[in-house]
Design brief:
Elements lengths: L3 E6 L8 H6 L3 E7 L3 H11 L4 E2 L2 H5 L6 E4 L6 H10 L3 E4 L7 H14 L3 E3 L7 H11 L6 E9 L19 H9 L5 E11 L5 H4 L3 E10 L5 E7 L8 E8 L2 E4 L8 E5 L8 E4 L30 H4 L8 H14 L7 H19 L5 E2 L7
Parallel strand pairs: 1-2, 1-4, 2-3, 4-5, 5-6, 7-10
Antiparallel strand pairs: 7-11, 8-9, 8-15, 9-10, 11-12, 12-13, 13-14
Length: 374
Amino acid sequence: MSQINIAIVGLGFGAEFIPIYQCHPDANMEAICQRTQSKLDEIGDKYGIQKRYSSYEDLLADPAVHAVHINSPIPDHGRQAIQALKAGKHVACTVPMATTVEECRQIVALVKETGLKYMMMETVVYAREFLYMKELYDNGELGKLQFIKASHQQDMDGWPGYWPGLPPMHYATHCVGPALGLARNEAEYVSCFASGTIREEMHAAYNSPFAVESTHVKFKDSDLSAHIYRSLFDVARQYRETIEVYGSEKSVEWPLIEHEPLVLHTAKKPEPEIPSKVKAPDYAHRLPEEIRAFTTGGVYGGEVGGEHLSFTQGAGHGGSHPHLVHQFLNMLNSGEDSYPNAIESANITLTGILAHESALKGGERIDLPQWSHR
């Protein structure tokens, strides 16, 4: 398999990926899928895609489709990934992997049973800021890792109807993913405490009143732990997806305000010289030439403007989208898993799901299931 026939499911945020696949030398943008016919035709006409499905089941029955890239609403992720794997399709899926432990288990089991590939399209682990931190780690410049802190704070008022009241840690992959992904660690167990209360009219949707959930994550087979916190509603904070990494030689902190530089701390310098501001380089050189421009622009970003909420709140995800596309296609062509694969995606997603369960139980320790470990 050299050129892979891709179908994109969900054309809101999902449309951002269409021109990237169209430009990638290893992909053929085979089909698109959207329940709303007018939206389906609008996007199909805009990008010249002839094969259009308003039925997901009909799409999965198409033998020409090798892989689906799911960008549907969060409640549909697990079910649609399971359906696709059962239909013999490789799966890329926007975050999170699923909303229940059982859906995650089924996806991991199906990948093992079928030999098909699954990748959760976590943006932060391919954002330029994270890639800079990982480069420092891989080169040994951080020294011994000592602690990781990560957060994702965002005001979700105005987002689609399934968002209001969502437990904060149920959508935590943008902070859990980089915390685990830096050194390719796994979460062994979690303990989470809730703080504050969202507006009462949102409580009933998920039986969750929590404004903030703050989680400690113990890493498996490591002396490391991480502190992760998350808020979605009724907390005054500019959008911020962050990871802060503390090593024995160097540490890196995400800026407090969007678009400001990272802060690099270097040990054993005179105190005023320890911190320095660093602009993360772009890593487009790691990509095929045909898609390098998409690290700084795209359908909703760049000169076109921030038409989609993931860009007006999120700054285009740090140039990650073409990296995600390239990693997924490389995974299918090489047979070698990209990060995060099915098991890693389950471990990241379950860290959030089980953290919320811990918060409901007053911070009780909850272990991640064995099948979520490599």
